Amino acid sequence: MSASSLSTFLRNPLQLALNLAPVWGRLSVLLLAGVLSILLVLIFSNPLRTVEERLGAMGWTLTTNDYVEQRITLVTIDEKSIAEIGPWPWPRQQMAELVNALDDAGAQLQIHDIYYSEARAGDIELLAALQAAQSVVLSQVPVLQSNQTVSVGAMSHPLTGLNCNASTSAGGSAINVASTQSFVANHAGFAAIATGHIAPIVASDGAIRHIPAVVCVDGAAYPALAISALLEAINSTDRGASIVAGKTLFGPAWNLQFDAYPGLDIPLDRQGNMRISYKESPESYRAISAADIITGNFDPAMLENSWVLLGETALGMGDVVPTPYSGATPGVELQARILGSLLDAQIPYTPRLANGMLALLSLVFAAVLLKLAAASGRVSAYGLPVAAVVLPVLALTLHMQQLSSNEIWIGWLYPALYSVLASSLLMLLELSRVRGERSRVFGNLSSYLPSDIAKEIAYSLPSSAINAKRCDVTLLSADLRNFAAFGEARPPEESAAMLHFFFVRATEIIEQNGGRVHEFKGDSLLAVWDGQDKKAAQQALQAAKQMQRAIDQNRFSPDVPSGIEPLALGIGIEQGPALIGSIGPAHRRSHAMLGDTVTITLRIQEMTAELAQPILVGECAARQLGDFKLESQGSYLLNGLRIPHTLFAPSFSESPSLPNKQGKPNLRVISASGK
């Protein structure tokens, strides 16, 4: 690409595409749309990613599972509990009573989405209750996404076998798990109770869509609360784990595996996070108020052999987050979702080949848009705008289908954004191309017809009806006499050069004097001025004189072919009404000027040869030229007419060129070279 082409591309990429062949121009626009899409995704990453996540989650919300989750029961510290038991945090003795009540009701596993970071009165009773229960898992909070440095309590129950610097797969690739030195954990007195972290990744819009499977604190890897609960449920003391790279292109980037749970592969993304599934509606989860548990006002069947998630749901306690279903969802519900996904082995993930799949979908969209742009007529005119709407919806629909059916998060933003940009740019390109072609057509029409007529033809549909209007005009007919004999003696190239010069120079003069050429016919032309007033008549006469002078002076070669008369220019001028418009069938129209004024003007021009006058003016135009010295040439019955007409010619002093002694006009013949 040359420097000028590069400069043109930077200023107006579409202009460069217009200069290419249509197919290459469209391909360059598609390539430009791809580059722009990448730049937009990089520059506006956060807002675009939020849009992708929110709309993409409709794959869950539009096809929710409404069945009741029987395995997990939520025990909530809600407004009712606060009102009956007292403000939070409750005394440890009260918590011990709650733990005992849950165990007595047959809860198989208690998962506390709360932590006990400070030593308080009643810790002995609470610890005894926790140890007496079948299985209990407490929470601890590594502090992520914050510059705050805290160290409260003691982190416990890490996984073994994981390298917190880099967990390396057999293939040699590595993943850096989330790491921090800040945490809020249970105090050391509860170190014997299993724990798991509740440290979600908060997105830019405040929503929680991912949670680290493990978090490294001071070189030790601690599992998420739901994972720790799963390990606790199998009563295994082996906490060995490993993170291995995905083995298939359609599988996850990483898998978290456990020595004590063969066959369980927890899919992770490239940052080592689990995606939270929102497939189940909030109504799927059964909830019992903690106050009802303490008072015994509940159905024991709801807790028997179930996993109990104990957490805060009361407004004002701070443990609420926005989800696709609600702007204020309790955090304990998110833990229930993660735990349910683990039990079902249906954790949503992004395939390793996701970017390639999106690129392939974008290529398919590009092929569709290229086909539409290359189509003719209405297919392209309507197809591209429709594609700008349909293709993004199709990309979103494909994503939603995979998410709903297979719990696979592919994404849809890039192909959707690309299709919108590509469709828009192709529409601009085709519109510019059509406008350019229309401009060329109009320019070509204007070279054959007056501009106003050309515009009317270019922007209206053809019709078989007469489309003409009556108007007053001043006409000038100019004929290059003796041209037939000249053309017979000269090569056609020289005749064409002569006629070309005559038409070009005459047109320039006529337009400079306010007129326009109506038509070229043979070796003559017909020019028109609007109106039949003094100004139009004067402009027509002035143009006639300049045309005679231009052809007479330094334009015609003195080498006149032997045996023929020299070339001469005869001009007739008259005013009057005329009918101007188009006639003929719709598939073959003709622009015409009709009326007596046209016929009279042509006949006056023919009389210039008989009267040996280069310019003759009809009586109507002569009335407007009182300031000019016109000499009457008498009254004549013009050929084909029944009424005599008086003709006038500019006087001797007004003649465009002086006659020689023999009374012959001083005419010269232009050569084929135009010199």
Automatic annotation (TrEMBL):
<keyword id="KW-0812">Transmembrane</keyword>
<feature type="region of interest" description="Disordered">
    <location>
        <begin position="653"/>
        <end position="675"/>
    </location>
</feature>
<feature type="transmembrane region" description="Helical">
    <location>
        <begin position="353"/>
        <end position="373"/>
    </location>
</feature>
<dbReference type="Pfam" id="PF00211">
    <property type="entry name" value="Guanylate_cyc"/>
</dbReference>
<feature type="transmembrane region" description="Helical">
    <location>
        <begin position="23"/>
        <end position="44"/>
    </location>
</feature>
<dbReference type="InterPro" id="IPR001054">
    <property type="entry name" value="A/G_cyclase"/>
</dbReference>
<dbReference type="GO" id="GO:0004016">
    <property type="term" value="F:adenylate cyclase activity"/>
</dbReference>
<dbReference type="GO" id="GO:0035556">
    <property type="term" value="P:intracellular signal transduction"/>
</dbReference>
<dbReference type="InterPro" id="IPR029787">
    <property type="entry name" value="Nucleotide_cyclase"/>
</dbReference>
<feature type="transmembrane region" description="Helical">
    <location>
        <begin position="379"/>
        <end position="398"/>
    </location>
</feature>
<feature type="domain" description="Guanylate cyclase">
    <location>
        <begin position="474"/>
        <end position="605"/>
    </location>
</feature>
<keyword id="KW-0472">Membrane</keyword>
<protein>
    <recommendedName>
        <fullName>Guanylate cyclase domain-containing protein</fullName>
    </recommendedName>
</protein>
<dbReference type="InterPro" id="IPR007890">
    <property type="entry name" value="CHASE2"/>
</dbReference>
<dbReference type="Pfam" id="PF05226">
    <property type="entry name" value="CHASE2"/>
</dbReference>
<dbReference type="GO" id="GO:0009190">
    <property type="term" value="P:cyclic nucleotide biosynthetic process"/>
</dbReference>
<keyword id="KW-1133">Transmembrane helix</keyword>
<dbReference type="InterPro" id="IPR050697">
    <property type="entry name" value="Adenylyl/Guanylyl_Cyclase_3/4"/>
</dbReference>
<feature type="transmembrane region" description="Helical">
    <location>
        <begin position="410"/>
        <end position="429"/>
    </location>
</feature>
